[in-house]
Protein 1
Amino acid sequence: MYQRIDEKIMVAGVYAGRVFQPKRFKWSSKLYEIEEITLVSDVKDGGRKLRLYSVVVKGTVYRLCFDRDSEAWRLEEVWFEG
Amino acid sequence: MKANSLRILHVDINSYFATLLQQENPALRGRSVGVLKSAGRSCVIAASKEAKKKGVTTGMLLSEAKRLAPDLITVAAEFDRYLDTTRRLNKIFTNLAPSVHIFSLDEAFIDISDCMCLYPEAEVFGRLIQSQIKAELGEWVTCNVGISYNRLLSKIASEIAPPNSVFTITESNKDAILASITFKDVCGIGYALGAKLEQLGITHPYGINFLSDVELATTFGPFWSGELRRIGRGENSKSLSLLDEQIDKPMKSAGRTSTAYSLCDSEVEIKQTLYNLTTEVMYKVRKMQMAGRQVGISLWGEGKKWSDHRTLSYYVSHTQELFHLLYHQLYLSWVRHFKIIRYGVFISQLQPVAQLSTTLLPEWHRQERVNQAIDEVTEKYGLFTIKPATMLRFKMIRPEVTGYLGDKKYYGL
């Protein structure tokens, strides 16, 4: 199941062409190296444009959210087996 | 039949909701996944292909699904992401061919008549679609592509094809296929109609040809006798033919249903739920700059259903007005005798506001200014940012897309 986190994170990445690809993020002082981006979605919450990235770190999926207006990143959810 | 007359494709993403969750999460791939509307729900709204192999079906109770597939993993649906993925699919299709009709959240018809010089072989085009979907959405996302010379047959082709394949129905294999499939593979024939046909000894579409026009008309009436005759011959049904006419037409109605977690006997909660659904429906109607003059409500619970509607001589375009009609005039005029678990509201006979005459009543204009102000806030900060004080403690039911995608025009699809 996905565990709700909803905490601010710092993200570093690269632009491949015109597409941003997150490569690593820092959550609670710990650095997470992204191995794979498995799904990217653009959603709207009212006028807020959000880009959702599902990324894999050591076999675990993390759901990251980028607010395209405020340019802020949040870790929304983490997959927990069991 | 010439090969180049095979120009209608039906693309159907395999186990859409579950497949996207598996694409997102490698830990779910190859495992039985049951998608729930939200955590804590007791109904499986979609299943992965692995769960389907064990007998899990859409709409099945979670307890039954877990009995069939004890290893079932349940995951909450991500409706906003499904809608975005459908938009991406639409972009893939329209980049390849000019005539695309999104039929539901995970299905589309593509007519390649106008680009047959680019794609002389429909099967090659079908495989191109499959590869582009994988490239855009991920390796785990597979689809069936059905090919034929009309929509009915191309949809049947994708229904009966094995997962991740391209299948063609031609004039030469059409009858054999119509004689070998059941009605569940035929678009437009629901459970009740299929059961009625079975009572007549008709178990497959080709069998309809053995019924006379009189038998069909007597048993099924004027509309369905014609539809069934066309289906038996493998011709487009009326409902599939009409898709072209709907392309540039605005929506005729907007509605919203919602199933609660448990039966409700609280008048306060029923009122709040109806207000919640009314707000969402009217926001959509206003955003499309429409107004309607037929309003209705349906309530279900304890195996019973009550519904009522009213056709007005004027058009409604304000949330408070719609709620007043639905709640005060329809609901409160009914003596409730069962607890409620499912709620539905709708407004229909929609017309563009620009085509309607403006009222001179000052109160209407005051309400319009209030609604316009709320629309502006909603547009910027989201639905339910502004709500009545009576709703402050109520957990708002958020908008969600349905698999059928009935409000596709609202979503610009």
Protein 2
Amino acid sequence: MSAPTVTQLLVAWGDGDETALEQLTPLVYQELHRLAAAYMTRERGGHILQTTALVNEAYLRLIDGKQVQWQNRAHFFAMAARLMRRVLVDVARSRGRAKRGGGDLHVSLSEAEAGDSPFSQGADLVALDDALKTLAALNERQSRVVELRFFGGLTHEETAHVLNVSVITVRRCWNLAQAWLYRELRRDAR
Amino acid sequence: MMTPERHQQISEMYDRALEVAPDRRSAFLAEACAGDEALGAEVVSLLAARAEASGFLSMPALHIAAQELAASRPSTPLRAIGPYEIRALLGRGGMGEVYRAHDTRLGRDVALKLLPAQLALDPQHLARFEREARLVASLNHPNIAAVYGIEEESGRRALVLELVDGVTLAERLTSGPVAVHDARAIARQIADALEAAHDRGIVHRDLKPGNVMLRPDGAVKVLDFGLAKAFDPAQVSDPALRQVTTRLDAVTGTPPYMSPEQARGMPVDQRSDIWAFGGVLYEMLTGRRAFDGETSSDVIAALLERTPDWSALPADTPAAVRRLLHRCLEKDPKRRLRHIADVRADLADADGAPPDPVTPERRPWRARALTRTLASVAVVGLIGAAIAFNGRMRNSARTNGLRQYALLPPDGAAFGSSVVDRTPSFAISPDGHRLAFVASSPSSGARLWARPIDGLTADPLAGTEGAASLFWSPDGLSVGLFADGKLKRVNLAGGAPVVLADASSGSGGTWNRSGDIVYAPTPQGPLWHVPASGGTPRAVTQLGAGELGHVQPQFLPDGRHFLYLVRAAEPRRGIYVSSLDSPEPKRIVAARERALYAAPGYLLFLREGRLFGQPFDARRLELSGDAVPMADSVAFISTEGRASYAVSDNGTLVYRVGGLLATTQPLWVDHSGRVIGLAAEPGDYQTIRLSPDGSRMAAELHDLRTATGDLWIIELSTGQKSRFTIDGMHNNEGVWSPDGRQLVFVGRPNGVRNLHLKPVDGSTADYPLLAPGHDRMPLDWSPDGRHILFREQDPDTNMDVWALRMPERVPIPFLRTSFREEDAKFSPDGRWVAFMSDETGREEIYVTSFPDGTVKRKVSLDGGRAPRWSRNGKELFFIESNRTIMVASARWNGQPTFGLPRPLFTHQMRSMSPPLQADAWFNVSGPRFLILPPPAGPAPPAPPLTVVENWTALLKGR
């Protein structure tokens, strides 16, 4: 019997099989590292826009909706977006923790040299995740639009299909959520 | 507490507002949200966030996560940026990394805040950032963490900041509220910092406990002044970059300390800082925020609608402090406390100290309305009376502490003899009431002006054109000055200036109660004496061996002894005391610029632009105790010992910060004037000189903060910069040897420019090519390496061109007439020299044979400077009217014959001394020109004068 496909695993996870997640997570990691490696071979900065195609490929490899029965599609994409959110936020959280572990104020120079660039703000996806939870309590739909669009990589139209609402509703939700989350993330912790 | 129902209401109103044209949204919201102001404000706030958030979340999370992973590869170790050696990482936050670093030039530790590389990718943002940073760098206050400048190296940019030890107020607040007494002391210092900034028109915008450092000694330093905007990702104009930078933890408008008008998206002024100040004070006293909530919406609703919980204030909060909090946290900015200076009374009241009767009204340059003007004048009158008749009052005013404010030049005028005068002359009357200063305007040139220090109007004095180097009469009625090659005195009450003596290049004077004036007629000789009523001048000092000149005298209180600066090589250079009665000099302290005696017994002097005060016994003529730094970045010019500060007998200090120069960038331009490339990064270039192979450039770069200039070698292909000289002494042009391995440049170990030689790789130290003599500057090096042309300023024959035979170092006069000869350049075969002479009364280009000078041709017709030969010698380029590149073709028949010069193109060029900054480089495809344009964009604001009352408090504040 061949290994289950990503599609099968996602559907299984969506049906409550938590062990499916353990098999899914490494697949996302693998794509993530592949993508990261692609960036590293380029000059940093200045190539932000051209990488869109790469990201889309990565999503396609992970979430190929073509294999899914149409009545399962909504469920499938929702689970895929949730998977992305979970894995990527976990990555960010662990990296943020590792970074803070040394104690920011008295890190020796050698540690600083081996450390991260100022952009590896792992904590930001974590903060976004927290803010999304708050938003979900206020408006579930707005929060899910962000999950599908941002974490799931879906278009407005795909998101509208998944949520079974009009595209104009998705646009409105997205617009407000963007503003609301941006403002929330700007709040300084102190 | 935000509810889903309320959120839904907000969402719907937001959607409706979006459907309205942007310019009608305010009106729409005002009407649609009538009776529910919080709803309107909430929507405005979201719309503002949306406007800034363009691009936010628009790239998938996978992309961002992968980018972060990619960015986490080990970066190149950072060891030094410019003269700053990295010592340790202090912290890392959204705004970048902060390092402790050591300033190898000034021997002190600083903090370096690295600008995130992504922000540096956006030139517009960068320009704004640098403008903001420069403005903040002009702030100089003991409670403001100073911005020393911007340093950059290989594309990494860092803000150089004062290093402050201690904890932030935010950290302190995690352990509970601050005792009332301590909170007041902290608040007072924050208020002082804000006042200094507000006086300069700088709004902090992000005052919060995390930006307030508490030093172990009790001093408070406010951080990140005005930088909120500079670091604000919303200011990044490129959406693609903004996407990245929004992930940084941006700092604008931290809601808990945000003012209602900020929340409404209205423009921000100093009153928003006052609101935040109130919030910080409240939090110190109560240990909790004045306005808080789970989400930004909750915080905004609270700060718009609710009053802080006043009952949370501790019982021992003085009434004055409670009143103050109410006035700061007033929601309507119009009814809020207007000027931060006004909090002092309340905070001081609470201390049990006598209130300062004049404080609330003394904001001289802020008060503009007529009524306020009249009020100020009346109060100033009162102060005068109080000081004259009530000694106790004067003393109490002194112990009441420091006041610091800015003084602007008269409308349409600039301080100093021209807008680029970095050390304008000014002097404060002994009683501290009036300021005499030189200011210039394009229409009327430089004149002497006088104004009451607390008044609002300044008046120019007739007949004082060209005034420089001012000093007061002891009675405060007259001013001594130098103009037209004479020492003069002028009565401020009226009347024409009276000529007292010749003084070709006056370098300071002083006037005692017996009517003696001691002055320096030139920077080159001894000091002289002349009676203020007129008489025959006589020298009162004698130049010792190795001394170049005595300058900048100042009488000590006994009216017989006087301080002065001896211009000489180190270690002889320094401050000395001599006397009218016996000319035996006594050395007091090493210094490069003038020192001043200041009552009640201090000597003030500069070190690298930092002003120090040290106890000085004027009778025993001895220093004691420690030198305490009081102010940074005071403008100075070491050569003549000039330094921009003055002090009165009653504790008022006036100074001007230096180093605010504009940025320019050398350009490559082709023969049609088209810009074909940028030659190097932006900087404050003073001179540019290409290496013979065109691969490198020697450039004098000016240092923003210290007013020093050094030569740098810049690799044009990579932009890599290396410092060539380190003395900061404005080394002017570097002239390359034909093999490109050595540079002749200007050294001035004793203050006079001389020719120095050093290998470009810095492998050996520099050495002078000639014994010290007249002022010299290198011009060119012959293709065979045998002769260096240099110009020399000879008082008898004016500017001359000499040749120095190498390696014997024998100087040979080459162009030596009573006219000015300069800008000499060898032809490619080394047998001819193109040069500038003003023998016709106009600066024109000539070519003459070298070394005999027997054949001479005039090349230019309408003036010219800075000649450059093409590689084959068939064309001679020069600059006409400071901005047009001209070319004259040469036909050679043993001797050159030049055709009529024709213009190639016109380009703005920075005009310095030497005047024209352009160079040429030739390859097979034709000439390219390296051009230094004048500083681009709006010039940074010229620094005002800083007035410090009760300056002795500065000695205690550190």
